[in-house]
Amino acid sequence: MPPNRRVNKPTPTRRRPKVAGTDRPRPEITAEAPAPQAATPRPVDLSKPAAGTGRTRLSWTLVAVLGIVAIALGAFAFVAYEKPGASVDNLAFVDNSDTQQVRAQVDAAVATLYTYDPAQMEGYPDTVRPLLTDKMRCFFDATLDSTKQFVAQTQAKSDIHVDAIGVSFLDDDRAEAIVSVTSSWSGPGQEPGSEQRQMVVSVEKSGDDWLVSDITDLREAPHSGDCPSSN
């Protein structure tokens, strides 16, 4: 009887396990390049409109920041209520009267600083200067000529609306507020536009008033600490 011979059988092909959703055809994704936008001239460091659309949305970054401020307010209010003798350095969380005063004066200062009209530029500096500290007034004066030239050449009109203010810090002499504004502009030969901006406004107490000592746009790097020469 002949011996049994081994027969090489073809190895069955292994099938890859199925994962839910992987056998579906992938949709084609077509990327569209954003339409180019014309650059809008920017007058000065403190007041400079940028290209945007007429409709704006509240920045979710600012919403998150204001949310954190609100949570902190609640936490410090709880501490002040539960432990009346506890020391709270940030009066923004316990002194409602001063907090409201800071909010009101920051609102007025920002609206005055960032609103200008070609027909009212002569009185613009005298309206703004009393709202600023000496250091901030130096920055303002250093850019004033550029602002006047820009407005005279373009006949641009700028307006601003303060959408939200949250006081994040307050003591006896200083305060800081996070501000969201909608800036709009128009002029002959220019398409009207608007944009949303967020900034941190620092103020210092002078008598009964709070004067603006610094403004930091959250989209840009802060300016240097030294006042530039106005010459």
What report would you give on this structure?
- With 231 residues, this protein is an alpha+beta fold.
- It has a domain at 60-217: Nuclear Transport Factor 2, Chain: A (Roll).
- It has four helices and four strands, in the order ααααββββ.
- It has helices at residues 60-82, 96-113, 124-128, 134-154, and strands at residues 157-170, 174-187, 190-206, 209-217.
- A four-stranded antiparallel sheet has the order 1-2-3-4, sandwiched between helices.
- Strand 2 and strand 3 (190-206) form a beta hairpin.
- The radius of gyration is 29 Å and the shape is globular.
- Mean pLDDT is 73; it is low at 16-31 and 35-58.
Q: Compute the separation of the termini in Å.
A: 116 Å
Mean pLDDT: 73
- Report Rg: 29 Å
From the helix content, strand content and strand pairing, which structural class follows?
Answer: alpha+beta
CATH architecture of the domain at 60-217: Roll
| Strand ordering within the main sheet | 1-2-3-4
Portion in strands: 15-25%
Q: Uncertain runs with pLDDT below 50, 5 residues or more?
A: 16-31, 35-58
Count of helical segments? 4
Which percent bin holds the helix content?
A: 25-40%
- The CATH class of the domain at 60-217 turns out to be Alpha Beta
* CATH homologous superfamily grouping of the domain at 60-217: VirB8 protein
Largest sheet: 4 strands, antiparallel
